[in-house]
TrEMBL record:
Keywords: ATP-binding, Nucleotide-binding, Transport. Residues 15-242 form the ABC transporter domain. InterPro entries: AAA+_ATPase, ABC_transporter-like_ATP-bd, ABC_transporter-like_CS, ABC_transporter_ATP-bind, P-loop_NTPase. It comes from Micromonospora peucetia. This is ABC transporter ATP-binding protein. Transmembrane segments: none annotated.
Length: 259
């Protein structure tokens, strides 16, 4: 009997930052954005990053995504892993249908047409948009557009998802539904998620661990595991208690620096 062993997805999603520093510009115009950030994210872990405005959260995600290079330190991903990145704006191609948008990464990977069609259908099913494949982005709500963006990111078939305020522009009800969706997909696919948010309740609702960055230049000043059983409700007393603690720490930090 032959057996095929496939590496579990959870074995490939680790992210490790070692003393990562980022300075934009030079000389008198130098802007230190990150200062000595070390962080180990375990495969399958959901980590939320919070911190004052401008403390370097997006910079950190961009560095992990490989869109920019650190000025110092090192970022380790497992070999061949290219993280998927999602922003507050879904950044869809307006001239393409929903199917066409989700198909883009599959085309870039050279998947044959029939395989692309099956994969797009599966991904749209995953984000509950099976009946909307022929629509164009302008025909969808904001929440639906973010679902398309999520399906397109999942089409990269990456174990590491980097999310920069992905639900920041959505109303509370839509955000709540998308939290449930993301949690389900994260569990099913054993994804490693690094999620930036200003919303401490959202962090407490989603994270295994919350990391607090100092005001610029960003350093990790505090972190806490979120030991609240899943599924969670954003309005549960346990989530509210964690959010209140994060808010207190954030207030203290912002108060210290005035930003
Ligand atoms: N390309 C760049 N050139 C110069 N400075 C930059 C550049 N990108 C970011 N910065 C600066 O680096 C600092 C960190 O920016 P970053 O966008 O990472 O912060 P953030 O925590 O994501 O902010 P916010 O919470 O407001 O989205 C800010 O002071 C910003 O102005």
């Amino acid at each position: 009997m032959t057996s095929t062993t496939t590496t579990p997805r959870s074995a490939t999603g680790s992210v490790a930052l070692h003393g990562v520093t980022k300075v934009y510009g030079r000389g008198a115009n130098a802007v230190p954005a990150l200062d000595g950030v070390s962080l180990d994210v375990a495969p399958g872990e959901f980590v939320c990053l919070v911190g004052a405005s401008g403390c370097g959260k997006s910079t950190l995600l961009n560095l992990v995504a490989g869109l920019d290079r650190p000025s110092g330190g090192r970022i380790d991903l497992e070999e061949g892993v290219e993280p998927g990145l999602m922003f507050q704006e879904p950044a869809l191609f307006p001239w393409l249908t929903v199917e066409g948008n989700v198909e883009v990464p599959l085309k870039l990977r050279g998947l044959p047409r029939a395989a692309r069609r099956d994969r797009v259908a599966e991904l749209l099913g995953t984000v509950h948009l099976a009946d909307f494949g022929r629509k164009r982005p302008h025909e969808l709500s904001g929440g639906m557009r973010q679902r398309v963006a999520l399906a397109r990111t999942l089409a990269l078939d990456t174990p590491v998802l980097l999310m920069d305020e992905p639900f920041g522009a959505l109303d509370a009800m839509t955000r709540d539904i998308l939290h449930d969706e993301l949690e389900r997909i994260w569990t099913q696919r054993q994804l490693t998620v690094l999620f930036v948010t200003h919303n401490v309740r959202e962090a407490a609702r989603l994270a295994d661990r919350i990391i607090l960055l100092s005001s610029r230049p960003g350093r990790i000043i505090w972190s806490t595991p979120v030991d609240v059983p899943r599924p969670r409700r954003i309005d549960s007393p346990e989530v509210a208690a964690i959010a209140a603690e994060v808010t207190d720490r954030l207030r203290t930090e912002v108060g210290r620096h005035g930003r």
